[in-house]
Amino acid sequence: MPKEQEVKTIKEYGRGIIGGFLFSLPLLYTMELWWIGFIASPEKLLAFEAVTFLLLIGYNKYAGMREDATYGEVVRESLEELGLAFTITFLFLLLINKISFGMSFDEIIGKIIVESMIVAIGISVGTAQLGQQNESDSGMANKGNKNEKKPGPAQLWTLSLCGAVLFSSSVAPTEEIVHIAMVSTNIHLIFMVLLSLLLSFTILYYSDFKNSKTMERGIKEMALHIMISYVAALITSSILLWFFGRIGGGAGGGFGMALAQTIVLSIPGVIGASAGRLLIK
Amino acid sequence: MVEKSKKYNPLEKSTFFVGLLILSALTGYLVHQLIANDKTPPRLLVTIEHQSSVPGNGYKVEIENTGDTTAEEVQVKLGLYQNGEQVETATLNIQLIPAKSRETGWVFFGKARVTSDSLIVTSKTFLEPI
User: Fold this and answer.
1) Residues sharing a CB contact under 8 Å with residue A176, sequence separation 6 or more, in sequence order
2) Could you list the pLDDT tens digit for every one of the 281 residues in chain A?
3) B28 touches chain A (CB under 8 A)
């Protein structure tokens, strides 16, 4: 019979898995994501793996674990989450018949890497945010530490990037982003940038969002926070678009098309970087 | 100050080692692929088989990509020849065929089957993904 600690761990894993599904189920059902698994080059898959692992470490360091957690513990928790993510992604793709043992090894590996990376961030956020407030600090249950301290720049960047990835990754691989970018004039794009900044301002400073009260309302800080959110959304969008073969590496359309797609994708990205950042904190 | 070090239970330990093992294996595999860099372009092998068990003049067409790269927007054109003359054509369009995998399609012709029937692949086209 499992001991109390093991039961607690199983509950945490359950929470993490639900969090993983909550954020990544649309991706598990998206065919462009399955395709990218066998189209993407090894360097792209490696880069995706590395960026996700760094984001996981960043999230666990700044929001997922207790403040005095060592880097060793943070890395250990991140690997634990990756282990869970690989396992549930493999089983889920097997369940929906998107991987089978008749497929080539490269195809199976590619699909699992692409899908499990987002699942891992979802697991991390889910474990941290879906638990009860009185959960005691141990292991993955260390998460959900709601300190009211003013966040530092590294924390802001990390949470903004994680939020942007979670919110924009489900639309980044779709053809619709390319289509919208193609039909958008410069005026449309300028208004999209303005809308993104307005959304960020509304979320961070105007609508009394959860966790936004820790921030001061001086013009300088307001501008800094909004810019961090927007730049994080732009960075995330361009990385995701590059990964999905929409920009760079002979994707076509030149700089103008790449910029237009980045601006289009930055709208969900900035919502993730602002609202997501506050919610997953 | 007393340093608090966390004790991990067997379940946490095994999940950690599974994560570490899979991540290391995947990274190693990808690095090996990156260094080897010997991927061949898509190579499509088409196998055609007449299906006498179904009504009409039907053929099962299997397209296998024996290369190391995915073939995108694959188009296979087939010509039905009777008594040395092309009497009908058909085209199979397949969005993607991953490396080392196969897709199966079916082609049915309006012309009734005769003993001199031969089905020829007249062209194979595909794109190499970026």
Assistant:
1) none
2) 567 777 888 888 888 888 888 888 888 998 888 888 888 888 889 998 899 899 889 888 887 666 677 888 889 889 988 999 999 999 999 999 999 888 888 889 999 999 998 889 888 888 877 766 554 444 454 554 445 566 778 888 888 898 898 889 888 888 899 999 999 999 999 999 999 999 998 888 877 666 666 556 678 888 888 899 999 999 999 999 998 888 876 666 688 889 999 999 999 999 988 887 777 66
3) no
Residues B5-43 as b/e (b if ≥16 CB within 10 A, e otherwise) read ebebbebbeebbebbbebbeebbebbeebeeeeeeeebe
Backbone angles phi, psi at B124, to 5 degrees: -130, 125
| Distances from the Cα of A55 to the Cα of A113, A117, A159, angstroms | 15, 10, 9
Q: How far apart are CA A70 and CA A281, in angstroms?
A: 19
Nearest CA in chain B to A4: B9
How far lies B105's CA from each of A49, B41, B48, B61, B64, in Å? 35, 22, 10, 5, 11
Which residues from chain A sit within 8 angstroms of residue B98, using beta carbons? Answer: 38, 103-104, 106-107
**Distance between CA atoms of A108 and A101, rounded to whole angstroms?**
8
A39 contacts in B (CB within 8 Å)?
Answer: 70, 72, 96, 129
CA dihedral A104, A108, A111, A116 (to 10 degrees): -170
Neighbours of B82 (CB within 10 A): 17
Sequence letter at residue B34: L
Written as six digits, the tokens of B101 are 């995998």
Instruction: In whole angstroms, give the CA distance from residue A156 to residue A162.
Output: 10
pTM of the model: 0.79
Phi, psi of B41 (to 5 degrees): -70, 170
B72, containing H or E segment = strand B71-82
